[in-house]
Every structure is written in structure tokens, then in C-alpha cells.
């Protein structure tokens, strides 16, 4: 696929330049630290401390450097190791790097399925990142035939810390107070732009978004929750695959591992807590880019007296649950890759000429305020000032704008154009003037 090849070239160059910068700064190269012990397994800081505290950013750098360095070539049995690369894909508001880790096989099928793990949009939910670092290490370390076969078919993309300032400060939002998981439509924050760049350049087939939650004390939820994209504009076939992944694969794997697991967003009494069709959420926004997208939430609070008295045990359960879910996603990618890629191809073909109707709100379990979907106008006309406001978001989403500042809805990203520009849309960033068909371009 063309976009992918472009990305690979860019990755290689960007990786080199990143390592060069690191070399100049004197932080990343030189002898690999012996964090795993001489000849021992490469470990995370979290593992070395038995789960008492999270892997620090410096330990993460060392871990990745070791994994990259630990791949000298095929061994005597002809086993070729996984390739690990690290690419800077953007920067945070405070100037911290947003990095993408790629794990791929030494040999791959012509079009491996790409799975993106987004490991901590909210900085105060650290278990997702920890699970992702373990996952990367496990994949890079796996010398089994099954592990090799998996990486021949699946390319694993990992954003360990998409909100690095929030992670450093232990806050949900970014340093500018932005909730990153409400910024995937307007794409106003540098962190959301970095994530969008990854989506645009890698075009992942599956997006797996890792979170942690505080169960409400009056209505305890299952300790693990999952959800698919509920936005009504999402292609039904892709929603179906996301449901299969979330419910049948992830939910089942979590239950098999001993954790109760349920649908996110509705508590035991049927009260709605969140997880709706909001198009600003990554789960919905990525699905509108024709990805199979899922959310996984793990309870951050103690679920037993034992966990209450043992922080390391609590941390290990949170990380362990995320790992089980992530592995379930990789299994589905390996086993159902063809179904996923052909569904995505079909969805892209269906959306190529733009939407016939656009739902301005609602969800697959909730009727919206708008009883019927909107039949979108042919175009939205923008004033120069409105264009200045909307320009960055339109560009980030790949929405084409005519020289006379009209945005036609008959284009692949026509749903997002409508949600961004229609005065009736709940999260529109500017109020474009709807132009009926036959008048635009006059
Ligand atoms: Zn979260």
C-alpha cells in the first residue's frame, strides 16, 4: 500500500535522525545498560521492582535501546529476530517527545495487518503504558515459531505515552488541560496532532485504546470493560468486527483469565456513565477513518482486601488485565486479518464518494436528538475567518477545500467535514454555510 511504503521510508529516516539527536545529546547510545542482568531477560523497571512502581521514562528509553540492540541477526536455527524501531511522531505542549514503537517480523506477508495500541491518553492511567512496554518486550523476545508467525502477519504499532506531560504530572489532561480523548475531531492539541499523524501515515487496521477507570462506589462495575465505536456514522461492518473483537475476543479472554468483564458505559443499574457516540473520542474517530477500533478499561482501584493492602499486587492486576486484552487483539489480527482488511477496503470504497446521510448525535444504543439523520448539503461555504479557524483540523483529517473556500461533502472524509462544519453539529468548530446542490461552485 502506497501510504505504508511512504511511512516506512519516513520511519527509517526519522528513526535515524532521532537516534542521531539522541547521540548528540548523549543520552541514548553507548553500551546498553544491563537492566535485564547479564545474558538474562530484558526487563522493565516495573518488573524489576515487582510492580511496586511504574517504569520511568529513562528506564523506558533503556529498555527500547536494549531491544533494538538485542537483534544481531538470525541465530543458528535460522531464527531472525523481530525488528523494533522507535520513531518520534510529535511533541507535547511542554516539548516532550511522543514516540511510536514498531515491532515487525524479519519476514512479513505482502500486507501485514497493522495494529495500533494507544497506551495512555490519560496521564493518570499508567497501567496501559506498562502493559504496552511488556507487550513490546515479549514480542521482541519471543523466539517461538508461533511468535515468529504472528509477526509475519501482524505489524504492531505502540504509542506508549501519547500524553507524556500528563503522564509526568499524573494528570488526566495534557499540560494545557486538554482531555486528549475529546480532541480527535478538532485536533487542537499537539498530542492529538501527533496521534492523527500516526493514524494518517500508518493507516492501522485495528486501533486498541487502553484506559483505566474509577468504578462508582454506589454501582460497582466489572473490573474490566470493553467497548466498540457507538457513533452511528461508523460503517456497520466495521462496527460488527469491533464488537467481535471487544466482546467475543477481549471480553472472553479476560473472563477466561478470571476477571469479570462487561460492556463499558452502562453500570449495573443501567445508568449511562459514558462511552457514547461522541465523535471526538478516539474509538469513534478512528472508526470513521475505517479502522476496527476498541476501548479497554481496567478498574484502577483495589477490587479485593488483598489488593487494598498490597500496591504491587494491585498494579500487577491492572497491567496483567491490559496484557490479556492486548494479546486477544493480536490473536484476532492474526486469525481474522483477511476479514478485517477486506471489510476495511469495502468500507473505504463505500465512503469514497461521501456520505448519503450523517448522524449528528445518537449512538448504537441510544436514539439521538435528531430523529432522522441529516442529508448533508453539497458543500459548506466558509468565510476567510472561518477557514482560518478550521484550516488545521481540515488539513489533519485530509479534508479537501476548494479555492473558493467551499468544502464539498462528496469526499471520503465527508462525514467528518459535516461534523466539523455543520452549524447543527454538537462539536462543530465553526458554522459553515450549507450550500444546496446545484449552487456550489457558481
Ligand atoms: Zn482514560
Low-confidence stretches: 1-39
Helix proportion range: 40-55%
Output the structural class: alpha/beta
Domain unit count: 2
The fourth-level CATH homologous superfamily of the largest domain is: Zn peptidases
Bound molecules: zinc ion
| Biggest sheet overview | 8 strands, mixed
Indicate the CATH architecture of the largest domain: 3-Layer(aba) Sandwich
* CATH class group of the largest domain: Alpha Beta
The count of strands amounts to: 11
Keywords: Hydrolase, Metalloprotease, Protease, Zinc
Family: Belongs to the peptidase M14 family.
GO molecular function, one term: metallocarboxypeptidase activity
Cofactor: Zn(2+)
Q: Which key terms come to mind for this protein?
A:
442 residues; alpha/beta; Aminopeptidase; 2 domains; 8-stranded mixed β-sheet; 3-stranded antiparallel β-sheet; 13 helices; globular; disordered N terminus; binds zinc ion; metallocarboxypeptidase activity; metalloprotease; protease
Amino acid at each position: 500500500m502506497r501510504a505504508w511504503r511512504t511511512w516506512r521510508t519516513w520511519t527509517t529516516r526519522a528513526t535515524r535522525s532521532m537516534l542521531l539527536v539522541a547521540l548528540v545529546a548523549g543520552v541514548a547510545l553507548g553500551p546498553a545498560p544491563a537492566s535485564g542482568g547479564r545474558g538474562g531477560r530484558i526487563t522493565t523497571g516495573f518488573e524489576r521492582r515487582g510492580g511496586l512502581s511504574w517504569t520511568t521514562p529513562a528506564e523506558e528509553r533503556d529498555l527500547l535501546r536494549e531491544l533494538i540492540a538485542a537483534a544481531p541477526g538470525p541465530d543458528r536455527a535460522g531464527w531472525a529476530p523481530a525488528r523494533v524501531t522507535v520513531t518520534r511522531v510529535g511533541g507535547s505542549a511542554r516539548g516532550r517527545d511522543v514516540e511510536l514503537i514498531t515491532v515487525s517480523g524479519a519476514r512479513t506477508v505482502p500486507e501485514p495487518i497493522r495494529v495500533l495500541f494507544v497506551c495512555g491518553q490519560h496521564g493518570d492511567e499508567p497501567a496501559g503504558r506498562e502493559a504496552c512496554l511488556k507487550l513490546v518486550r515479549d514480542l521482541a523476545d519471543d523466539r517461538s515459531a508461533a511468535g515468529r508467525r504472528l509477526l509475519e502477519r501482524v505489524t504492531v504499532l505502540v504509542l506508549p505515552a501519547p500524553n507524556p506531560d500528563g503522564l509526568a504530572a499524573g494528570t488526566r489532561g495534557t499540560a494545557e488541560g486538554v482531555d486528549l480523548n475529546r480532541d480527535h475531531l478538532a485536533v487542537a492539541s499537539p498530542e492529538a496532532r501527533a496521534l492523527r499523524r500516526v493514524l494518517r501515515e500508518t493507516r492501522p487496521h485495528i486501533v486498541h485504546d487502553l484506559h483505566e477507570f474509577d468504578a462508582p462506589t454506589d454501582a460497582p462495575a466489572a473490573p474490566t470493560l470493553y467497548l466498540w465505536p457507538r457513533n452511528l456514522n461508523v460503517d456497520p461492518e466495521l462496527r460488527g468486527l469491533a464488537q467481535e473483537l471487544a466482546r467475543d475476543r477481549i471480553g472472553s479472554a479476560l473472563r477466561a483469565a478470571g476477571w469479570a468483564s462487561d460492556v463499558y458505559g452502562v453500570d449495573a443499574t443501567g445508568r449511562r456513565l459514558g462511552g457514547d457516540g461522541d465523535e471526538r473520542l478516539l474509538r469513534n474517530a478512528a472508526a470513521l477513518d475505517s479502522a476496527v477500533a476498541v476501548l479497554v478499561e481496567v478498574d484502577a482501584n483495589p477490587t479485593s482486601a488483598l489488593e487494598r493492602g498490597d500496591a504491587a499486587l494491585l498494579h500487577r492486576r491492572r497491567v496483567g488485565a491490559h496484557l490479556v486484552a492486548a494479546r486477544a487483539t493480536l490473536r484476532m489480527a492474526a486469525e481474522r486479518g483477511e476479514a478485517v482488511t477486506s471489510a476495511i477496503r469495502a468500507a473505504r470504497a463505500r465512503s469514497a464518494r461521501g456520505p448519503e446521510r450523517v448522524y449528528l448525535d445518537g449512538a448504537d444504543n441510544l436514539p439521538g436528538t435528531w430523529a432522522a439523520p441529516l442529508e448533508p448539503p453539497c458543500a459548506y461555504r466558509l468565510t476567510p475567518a472561518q477557514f482560518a479557524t478550521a484550516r488545521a483540523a481540515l488539513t489533519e483529517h485530509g479534508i479537501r477545500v476548494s479555492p473558493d473556500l467551499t468544502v464539498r461533502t462528496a469526499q471520503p472524509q465527508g462525514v467528518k467535514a459535516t461534523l466539523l462544519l455543520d452549524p447543527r453539529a454538537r462539536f462543530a468548530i465553526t458554522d459553515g454555510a450549507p450550500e444546496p446542490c446545484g449552487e456550489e461552485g457558481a
